[in-house]
Amino acid sequence: MNITTRRLSIALLLVGLVLLLPACSGQEPPATEPEPAPVPEAPAPAPAPRETEAPEAGEWEAADPSPSVLSPEELNRMGVLRTIYFDYDKSEIRADQRPTLQANAQWLRENQGTTILIEGNCDERGTREYNMALGNRRATATMEYLVSLGVEANRVEVISYGEERPVAQGENEAAWARNRRADFKVVASSDTP
Asked: What is the mean pLDDT of the chain?
């Protein structure tokens, strides 16, 4: 054993003895600081509602600003008109999306000076040409539904982006379902500044 190892062994032995002496003499060991009590974790936030669910009636009232006060950009940022979603390879309006369209139509009827653009979108499956046509069918079906609810057709324009503007990345049903949609954009209001 070399000198350094021997010195280290002696030092460890002395430290051990110093720690054991109070226990052998009947003395209380030196007081140590108590550990702090654990901080309770904050409760997890409530999960956000699925995007395909229609909001509660009160949610629409809260997001019902007048276009006479806000610009089209501000109205779009606030999301006064909500997105709707479609089934795979379909352009028919789903029953669970009708309340969203009804609320959008109500807002448009109350804000007569507003014109909108409906953007038809698809997931990445299918050819580019097929998806452009499907996106157009989705936007047109959405416009026709709004017109059936009393919105004037001359206030609504449609465009298809096909698969070009995904909101969710991924090659799975969750991403594809979010990309099969019709978005709404306020493009003008005769009442805005």
From this structure: 79
